[in-house]
Design goal:
Shape: elongated
CATH topology of the largest domain: Outer membrane efflux proteins (OEP)
Helix content: 55-70%
Radius of gyration: 40 Å
Mean pLDDT: 90
Oligomer: single chain
Number of domains: 2
Number of strands: 6
């Protein structure tokens, strides 16, 4: 077994050991953590709950208002008065007390249908907030996997750099033995040591970047930044994707386009609500009241008086002319509606452009991936042949090192192409509105 093949097997075994000794964070677990804990998603969900509350019947204006009032007054005063027969009477410290309590009901029977369309608008605003929350989730999931796959790429790169370091260390041992027997010069030993140091630095830097990126992933999932884990480096592509299908799916499911459609509907209701200002308002009032007056004044005809009873009324209010305010609001509402339609047309064009751009990027990424896979096979074959020649002394140290670097660069480029292609696919799925409906 060649040195490279042995190290490949060793890498697989080491990778299995690391995964078994640390938490394996699967893609589905990462999604679950993010949906449950991501702070941005929590804020979006809270906004959705607020919109649901606003769209409830308690905020609709359809329910009556009921108010209670109560009061008490106390007076203490001196009084003096003359009777019809000329007799003068006076009293000091006369007390009078008044008590009242009432329950009042107000209900709008008709307000020009403004309340009706406002309620419908609140419902659509609630739906719009749900779409905004969905957009936040889609964006966060795409961000999650951009970091998740970066961790996967760096994990594989680190493993490959470890292999390169082991090969360089093995070469250094070989050259030292050969130097002891006079088969190599001291310069060959120094060059091999430089290669070992270079590979060690590359590995150290890669491990540091990997640690930092893992913390970035923990941050997105809103969990302890020090949590240690491994990720699944297996990448599978969604089969059967067709650009025309993606375009059709986007017209029905793209979240930005759906928000634009909700905006048009909300503005349509705004026009109808404003138009209700031209119609009268009819209201119903009702009350139950209780009043009691107590008076110790000797000049008063009654010392105590108590009343209670029901009252009801119907009123009509019609702003025949309000200075043009309602007319202005109506005209502006129509302009807002027109702007919303123009915005939807712009969104349609933007979504189509994004789909076509994302699709071409995805196809190019797949082509690059296949090319890089071919390059890896070619570089591996070249390395194996150079390694055999090096063992028999027909290849120089420089040739061996160059073949090793070429293989490492090909493997790293292939890893980059693999994850770039997967992220390009996810962007296609996001624009088409399908990113939450696929397996990752």
């Amino acid at each position: 077994m060649s040195k490279v093949k042995f190290l490949l097997v060793l890498s697989v075994l080491l990778g299995w050991y690391q995964v078994s000794s640390q938490e394996l964070l699967t893609k589905q677990e990462a999604i679950s953590y993010t949906l449950d804990n991501n702070l941005g998603i929590k804020v979006a969900n809270n906004n959705t709950e607020i919109a649901d509350n606003n769209a409830g019947v308690l905020n609709s204006g359809y329910l009556p208002t009921l108010t209670g009032n109560a009061g008490a007054n106390f007076n203490r005063e001196n009084t003096e008065g003359q009777l019809a027969n000329g007799e003068v009477r006076s009293a000091d410290g006369v007390e009078s007390r008044r008590y009242n309590a009432s329950v009042n009901l107000n209900y709008t029977l008709f307000d020009g249908l403004g309340r009706f369309y406002n309620y419908k608008s609140l419902k659509e605003e609630s739906n719009l907030t749900e779409l905004q929350a969905r957009e936040t989730i889609e964006t966060t999931i795409l961000q999650l996997f951009s970091v998740y796959y970066e961790v996967a790429r760096l994990t594989e790169n680190t493993s490959n750099l470890k292999q390169a370091l082991e090969i360089s260390k093995d070469r250094l041992k070989r050259i030292k033995y050969q130097f002891e027997y006079g088969q190599n010069t001291g310069l060959d030993v120094l060059n091999a040591e430089v290669d070992v140091n270079t590979d060690s630095i590359n590995l150290l830097q890669a491990e540091q970047v990997l640690k930092n990126t893992k913390r970035d992933l923990n941050l997105i999932m809103n969990r302890d930044l020090a949590t240690q884990f491994e990720v699944d480096t297996l990448v599978t592509f969604t089969p059967g994707l067709v650009m025309e299908d993606m375009l059709n799916q986007a017209k029905e499911n793209n979240v930005v386009l759906l928000q634009a459609e909700k905006g048009i509907l909300i503005n349509e209701y705004a026009i109808k609500t404003t138009r209700g200002g031209f119609l009268p308002t009819v209201g119903l009032t009702g009350s139950y009241g209780w009043n009691q007056n107590q008076n110790d004044n000797p000049l008063a005809f009654t010392i105590e008086n108590t009343t209670s009873g029901l009252a009801a009324g119907l009123n009509l209010s019609w702003d025949l002319f309000d200075g043009g305010r309602t007319i202005t609001q109506y005209k502006n509402a129509k302009i807002h509606y027109e702007n919303q339609e123009l915005q939807k047309k712009q969104v349609n064009l933007t979504v189509e452009r994004d789909i076509r751009n994302a699709w071409e990027t995805y196809q190019n990424a797949l082509f690059i991936l296949k090319t890089q896979e071919t390059n890896v096979k070619t570089s591996l074959n070249n390395f194996n042949r150079t390694e055999e020649r090096y063992k028999f002394g027909t290849a120089t140290n420089l040739e061996f090192r160059q073949a090793q670097i070429n293989l490492l660069n090909a493997v790293l480029a292939k890893n980059q192409a693999k994850y770039t292609a997967k992220l390009a696919e996810l962007e296609v799925l996001q624009v088409s509105g399908q990113i939450l409906n696929v397996d990752f």
